[in-house]
Design brief:
This protein is an alpha/beta fold. Helices cover about 35% and strands about 25% of the residues. It is built from 23 helices and 30 strands. The strands form six sheets. The protein has an eleven-stranded mixed β-sheet with strand order 1-2-21-22-24-25-20-19-18-17-16.
Length: about 700
């Protein structure tokens, strides 16, 4: 009997020690607190690998972006730098879409494009540097001087970067505009930066044509024709503006090849870029980003990338498809280039096979090893896979989920995954090319189930947190740190702290975790807003702290987790605050939800949800609720009619409420009514920004009648 007691005791002690070891392994400290703790604040936190804020980028004489390209071109001259596909054929098919005009919903017929593209063609680092030298010399020949501004109004592509590096070498300032930005925003940006030159493509000339007469500084347009637009756009534009200097990028490079100029040296404090925020509220704001801001952030990214197992080689490829006018994509691409990795370019509409004819989508063709994505992209990838799995036989579903849960537990504690997982995940991995080694999520909070799925099935995923004003990165998870909801440690060269928000009860004394507004300091904090001194004063403290407006908490391992934004907090009639962005992130785990906006009236006690649903899920729901006999019957009923069906509405609301209970949401956070929106929220409709963020006021105004009915 004594032996049995000893064995049981030894077993329990061993298990407890193992659990404690695994817990510490999964919760290693990523930050260290430094300095004094002031009342109403936490201490400042710095990355555990950078407690002294090392800021210099070794190996660069001149701290600017062109010198990064020059340095890598010397190190890897024959390595592939930029890859691109050429358009061979376009097929147009009509499709109905709904847009907002004068606060009214209007149905229009739009031609939907399907593409046939070539395989990838590649430019080496040596070739890209030569093109940059020629582009710089061409700009000089056209009369552009250091300090002048070049506006980039074009989709993400290798040409975008060649033009940008040409401007950097000339000592010019680039300014960025989303290619989806409307004429008013483009006009505002062009005039504010006093841009004398604009880089664009033929497809965007009709937009430029609408505002060119109100842009007195613009004298030259450099353009490319990627064969995806009607050449009539170019002919009409040239006819309408005979006095405007129009030149192709190819002709600019030829001009520069015979008129060589030396590079213009620029310093750390010189402005390299004026980047416009996506404008979820009001007009876009121009953020001034210096060479020092860029180099500081890029060096931090290099140090972070160095943790990838096995390092990098010439076989690694990054897929670039997010807007280069957004700081997330821009800073990631320059960090990737700084370590000599190849970038293959894609487009959001051609990433997958759905918009292709007689060829594969960009991901399957390129087979990237590194891929960034905003939560909306990862959400669509995961839900597509999950819907496929849910149609498998019960035994297969059971085995998959068993293997999936075991594997997630193993990687969470830094242990190898099961061999069985490779068999189950192989087909899923093939959908992203089969070679992914690292993925990045940024731009908005990502749902924890999506994060868990990508980490387990595809590859390690790191969540990042940043904003334009901090040159893209405030914090980032370690590459192999798998903890849901966290955004990791302060980036190399930076620090953050939390500050009380008493009116919302977010306090640094809260238990179990300190909470408050995130303040950031470091050499990655940008110079300021263009022509908005009042915003600079409002957002900064005299000792250099930038007030992000985001609410965070410091977790057990000292990592930062984001709760919401100050502007997104809604106080209900019962005095409860709800964080609508956080709730949207939770509710997005529903397979029914394509997009969602949580709304709460300040004189009501509960929130509601506006949901853009997945069409197939709604039609399958109609069959399961016996509204339709089968899928053939369901397809014969208009999507709008199904979305208005009370039984469908009740089923969607029940699904959201089940998700709320599963995530332990408080009563005040559970939606009590739902509006199902049959039309997608698009940039053209004015309901989302080019960065896929909700324009809440626009959505509320568009559905005011339906919202009021929810509270009757």
């Amino acid at each position: 009997m004594v032996y049995i007691i000893i064995i049981i005791a030894a077993f329990r002690i061993t298990v407890n020690l193992l659990i404690e070891f695994l817990h510490k392994r999964a919760n290693q400290l990523v930050n260290v607190p430094v300095g004094e703790k002031k009342p109403g604040e936490t201490q400042a936190y710095r990355n555990a690998k950078d407690t002294h804020l090392v800021t210099e980028h070794p190996g660069l004489e001149d701290q600017n972006l062109y010198n990064i390209l020059k340095k890598v071109a010397r190190t890897y001259p024959d390595r592939n730098c930029f890859g691109y596909r050429e358009c061979i054929k376009i097929v147009n098919e009509p499709k109905e879409i709904v847009t907002m005009e004068n606060n009214k919903k209007v149905t229009k017929v739009k031609n939907w494009k399907y593409f046939t593209f070539s395989d990838y063609k590649w430019l080496t680092y040596k070739e890209v540097e030569k093109m940059t030298i020629d582009g710089c010399s061409g700009l000089a020949k056209l009369g552009f001087q250091p300090g002048q501004t070049l506006m980039l109004f074009s989709p993400t592509s290798h040409n975008w970067n060649i033009m940008a590096f040409s401007a950097f070498r000339r000592g010019m300032v680039i300014s960025t505009c989303y290619d989806t930005l409307g004429p008013e925003g483009l006009q505002y940006s062009l005039n504010e930066v006093e841009a004398g030159a604009l880089f664009t493509n033929v497809a965007l000339l009709p937009t430029i044509n609408k505002i060119i007469g109100q842009c007195p500084y613009l004298k030259t347009i450099i353009y490319v024709d990627d064969k995806t637009s009607d050449i009539k756009n170019l002919d009409d534009f040239k006819t309408a503006h005979p006095n405007l200097n129009m030149i192709t990028l190819d002709d600019l490079l030829v001009l520069g090849s015979t008129n060589y100029v030396e590079e213009t040296k620029t310093g750390a404090t010189d402005i390299a870029c004026i980047m416009y925020t996506s404008g979820s509220t009001g007009v876009p704001k121009g953020v001034k980003i210096s060479n020092e801001n860029f180099i500081t952030t890029i060096y931090g990214a290099e140090k972070w990338l160095a943790d990838l197992k096995g390092g990098f080689n010439e076989n690694d490829i990054y897929i670039g498809y997010l807007p280069l006018a957004h700081i997330l994509e821009m800073i990631m691409e320059y960090a990737i280039l700084s370590v000599g990795i190849s970038i293959g370019y894609g487009r959001p509409q051609t990433l997958t096979d759905g918009s292709m004819r007689d060829c594969k989508g960009d991901i399957k063709t390129l087979k990237p090893t590194l891929m960034p994505g905003v939560p909306l992209v990862w959400d669509k990838i995961c839900k597509t896979v999950i819907r496929t799995i849910n149609k498998k036989p019960l035994v297969i579903r059971f085995l998959f989920h068993m293997c999936y849960n075991i594997d997630y537990w193993l990687i969470k504690y830094h242990l190898p995954k099961t061999p069985l997982g490779k068999l189950f995940y192989k087909q899923i991995r093939e959908e992203t090319g089969g070679r992914l080694r690292l993925s990045l999520a940024g731009g908005a909070p990502i749902n924890k189930n999506i994060y868990k799925f990508i980490n387990t099935v595809l590859c390690p995923m790191s969540q990042g947190y940043g904003m334009t004003e901090i040159c893209g990165v405030i914090s980032l998870q370690p590459i192999y740190g798998v903890i849901e909801g966290e955004v990791g440690a302060p980036f190399i060269n930076g620090e953050y702290k939390l500050v009380d928000i008493p009116e919302s009860n977010y306090l640094t004394t809260n238990k179990p975790y300190p909470q408050g507004e995130v303040w950031v300091r470091g050499k990655h904090v940008c110079v300021g807003y263009l022509n908005h001194p009042e915003l600079n004063e409002e957002s900064r403290t005299p000792d250099g702290w930038f007030k992000t407006g985001d609410i965070g908490e410091i977790r057990e391992n000292n990592a930062l987790a984001l709760i919401d934004r100050k502007k997104s907090l809604v106080k209900l009639a019962n005095g409860e605050y709800i964080a609508v962005e956080y709730l949207e992130c939770v509710y997005k785990s529903s397979l029914i939800v394509e997009n969602i906006c949580v709304y709460g009236k300040s004189f009501e006690n509960y929130p509601i949800a506006l949901v853009v649903p997945n069409e197939r899920e709604i039609r399958e729901l109609a069959v399961s609720k016996h509204i339709c006999a089968d899928m053939t019957d369901a397809k014969n009923i208009s999507f709008k009619e199904l979305c208005n069906n009370p039984m469908i509405k009740a089923a969607v609301l029940k699904d959201l409420q089940q998700i709320a209970f599963a995530n332990n949401l408080k009563s005040a956070e559970i939606v009590k009514n739902v509006i199902i929106c049959s039309s997608p929220w698009t940039i053209e409709a004015g309901l989302i920004t080019p960065a896929n963020k909700l324009k809440r006021n626009a959505i509320v105004n568009a559905y005011k009648k339906e919202i009021d009915a929810c509270y009757i």
